[in-house]
Amino acid sequence: MDSLTALLEGFATALQPQYLLIALFGVFIGTAVGVLPGIGPAMTVALLLPLTYTLDPTGALILFAGIYYGGMYGGSTTSILLNTPGESASIVTALEGNRMAKAGRGAAALATAAIGSFVAGTVATVLLTFLAPGIAKLAVQLGPADYFALIVVAFLTVGALLGSSVPRGLVSLGLGLLLGLVGTEVLSGQQRYTLGVPSLADGIDVVLIAVGLFALGETLFVASRLRHGPVRVIPVARGWRSWLTRDDLRRSWKPWLRGTAIGFPIGTIPAGGADVATFLSYATERRLAKGPSRAQFGRGAIEGVAGPESANNAAAAGVLVPLLTLGLPTTATAAIIISAFQSYGIRPGPLLFETQSGLVWALIASLYIGNVLLLVLNLPLVGMWVKVLRIPRPYLYAGILAFAGLGAYALHFNVFDTLTLLVVGIVGFLMRRYGYPVAPMVVGGILGPMAEEQLRKAMAISQGDLAYLVHSPFAIAAYATLAVIVVTGIWLKRRKARLEASPALVPTGAVAAVEIADAPADAATRDRE
Amino acid sequence: MTESSPVPLGATAPGGTPDPATGAPADGAADGRAGPGLAGEYAFAAVSAALGAYAIIGAGFIRVPPGSASVLGPRAFPYAVGVLLLVASVAVVVQIARGRRGVPDDGEDVDPDAPTDWLTVAKLVAIFLSQLVLIESAGWPVAVAVVFGGAAIVLGAKRWWMALLIGLGLGLVTQLVFGAWLGLSLPAGPLLDWIPIFHG
Predict the structure, then answer these.
(1) Which helix H or strand E contains A345, and what residues bound it?
(2) Using the beta-carbon criterion (under 8 Å), do A187 and B128 form an inter-chain contact?
(3) Which of A343, A432, A520, B165 is 20 to 30 A from A513 via CA?
(4) Mean pLDDT to the nearest integer, B31-44
């Protein structure tokens, strides 16, 4: 009951008019930016960071919560309505959602995605409310060796599971760790890898790494092979009637709940984030579908939108569990949120629920509020999001560059940060071009210094005895889990690659191509059965 | 979102069937050992390996303060990072040599069949570099106008004057919202500094 009263107090804070307004603004701007093609949730959060610089910590975190959920939601609108192959993170939604939109059922796809996001977000936030304080209480008892084990688990799973190959993920992680080393070392006050540049003595801000890799690197990469020609957005029928029929609802509610059940646990462990959750949910729905809906898979089955979209949002809330209770980021977005916390002198971790309990509960309350606002905001505003999707690409990417510049300069009002941003951006471009995942680099940048701190604390306690790192049952369990997660994760990725490679799921660029692809698709579906 | 699985356009792509080893469109190459970007791919892995070596060598030069209380000094972790980076980079080189090429990222606005347009990238980098000089000499609004206008023109905006105009508008709006309203100290520049609202 303790957490219930705390939550009510959180609501009392978050429902104050100015914070409510901030939440509304966060959800709105998060969705608007998230809808923009090519902008994922991580880039949304990174680009909108300057908005929070002058707010008080509570306001900033509430704004963040709104942006985070809004950005998650916005992405699904893009993949349903934009007539191009979507990015992989949301590709599962695109598989069925895009087909539904082409068949004139775009409104139903958007509606089931919106309500599914709401259901999943709310259920997952309830789980977060009741799980987080307990986990935090347990985590207080963890020693430096246990923490070090947890961090190693987090970054090795992120490094190994994201991207096309394990070594590439680890290179990305290593580059992030190296950037994290730059600066003055805390314990001994020595400068490391600063090349004698005074501006580097303070270290490289994770915000620069995130904005550089996501905003600048992505823009340069898209620019290098920009799809020319007109933007094709699938039209959506207007009016309430086309949203969800009784039949759609009947077919959607179970996938919503199943998606939540799959997404939340996967979000809480560092197993590759929402990507894995959406894929698992899609595979489950396809296996469970019966009768006519089974035949619809591959041509716009509503279950294939409802399930993955719920899983996506439940995972987004799940990510907040390790973030708030342990201070561990498991996705690039979470890494950016942690760095934002740090800029306010707030250290996420087990003590957060004791030292900053008002703040945390206001944040959690604002997650509930944000979910409701999203539902209210999104369905009526679909027409506006469609307009956003049509922004001419030269202006869109020019705008991203301008805002990336703002984010870098506004950090310390020093153009040296702008230069650092550009260098990181070029690295990000090359990584995308040559098939390296960028998220491990962001996570490495923020986890590296934390890992070193815990490692050195542990070594100070044990007088240099390395065996101390595995002295506690918790640490041993963590390393064992690491092995299990990596093996399962690699197995899941293999399955996913096979699923995506099957011709039934070709995300085609033009309506005409659907008809051509349909014939072999049917054959392939039969083959698998 | 960084998951770089290939867009399975194998059925329609001009390159032919997807390469079974990597899943990548084969780009006309039989086994993925040739094709565009191979040199660059080796170069990126080599530079990463060099950075790993640099981290290891550089770690040796970190001054360890005498009599420091902690057992593990400021060098140990850098050594570990350097080794990780070096080993992983070498593993990538081996993978490339065995024909497991990197798969370029995909995205809504990315044309998977287009070759890399390095010239556009270089132009954008040059335009972004102008910020280093312009923000503090000409002011934020002008710097944004140049970056936005320049980038939009390079990316193929239909009317160049429109791009510059929108850029200037964006610069002024961000100056007002972030500088005057939210209180970030963005320099207004000599052209606008005399107007009280921009001076904020």
Answers:
(1) none
(2) no
(3) A432
(4) 74
Question: Tokens for A449?
Answer: 């210094």
Q: Does any domain span residue B27?
A: no
A295-317 mean pLDDT: 87
Query: How many Å apart are CA B191 and CA B200, to the nearest integer?
Result: 15
What's the first-to-final CA gap in chain A, in angstroms? Answer: 50
Specify if B130 maps to a domain: yes
The SS3 of residue A337 is helix
Strands (E), A73-187: 183-184
Contacts of A464 (CB under 8 A, 6+ apart): B71, B72
Mutate to test the interface with B, among A155, A168, A420, A492 (most CBs of B within 10 A): A168
Residue A192 β-bridge partners: A183
**Beta-ladder partners of B25:** B18
H or E stretch covering A183: strand A183-184
CA distance A271 to A485: 7
pLDDT tens readout for residues B18-28? 333 343 443 43
Same structural domain, B127 and B184: yes
Q: Do A192 and B58 touch (CB under 8 A)?
A: yes
Radius of gyration of the CA atoms of chain B, in A: 24
- Give, to the nearest 10 degrees, the angle between helix A106-140 and helix A57-81: 140
The pLDDT of A369-384, averaged and rounded, is 85
B85-97 burial, b at 16+ Cβ within 10 Å, e below that, comes to bbbbbbbbbebbe
Cβ-count burial of A244 within 10 angstroms (0-12 exposed, 13-18 middle, 19+ buried)?
A: buried
All residues at 6 or more sequence positions from A117 whose CB lies less than 8 Å from its CB, including other chains: A72, A73, A76, A309, A310, A312, A313, A371, A374, A375
From the list A228, A405, A432, which residue is nearest B105 (CB)? A432
Q: Residue A96's closest CA among A110, A116, A75?
A: A110
Does A134 reach chain B within 8 Å, measured CB to CB?
no
Record: contact B116-A225, CB cut-off 8 A: yes
- Which chain B residues are within 8 Å of A84, Cβ to Cβ? 108-109
As a residue count, chain B comes to 200
Question: Per-residue pLDDT for B12 more than 70?
Answer: no
The chain A residue lying nearest B179, using CA atoms, is A410
Return the number of other C-beta atoms located less than 10 Å from residue A257's C-beta: 18
| Mutation choice for B interface testing from A171, A187, A462 by most B CBs within 10 A | A171
Identify the residue with better confidence: B78 or A164: B78
The whole-angstrom separation of Cα B60 and Cα B57 is 5
Q: In the numeric block, which tokens belong to residue A128?
A: 């977060």
Partner residue opposite A422 with nearest CB, options B62, B129, B186: B129
Q: What is the distance in angstroms between the Cα of B159 and the nearest Cα belonging to chain A?
A: 11
> In the predicted model, is pLDDT for residue B195 greater than 50?
yes
Residues B125 and B193 placed together within one structural domain of the fold: yes
SS3 A524: helix
Rounded to whole angstroms, how far apart are CA atoms A335 and B73? 26
Contact between A216 and B3 using a beta-carbon 8 Å cutoff: no
Domain-embedded: residue B29: no
Number of domains comprising chain B = 2
- In the three-class reduction of DSSP (H, G, I as helix; E, B as strand; rest coil), residue B110 is classed as strand
The range of the structural domain enclosing residue B83 comes to 37-64+72-98
Distance from CA of B77 to the nearest CA of A (A): 6
- The partner residue sitting opposite B72, judged by closest CB among A228, A410, A464, is A464
Q: Which of A37, A187, A394 sits opposite B155 (nearest CB)?
A: A394
Q: Is residue B108 part of a domain?
A: no
- pLDDT at position B90: 95
Same domain, B124 and B91: no
Q: Are A83 and A323 in contact (CB under 8 A)?
A: no
Question: Can you give the residue ranges of every domain in chain A?
Answer: 3-497
Q: Which residues of B touch A503 (CB under 8 A)?
A: 8, 10-11
Distance CA B98, CA A244 (A): 51
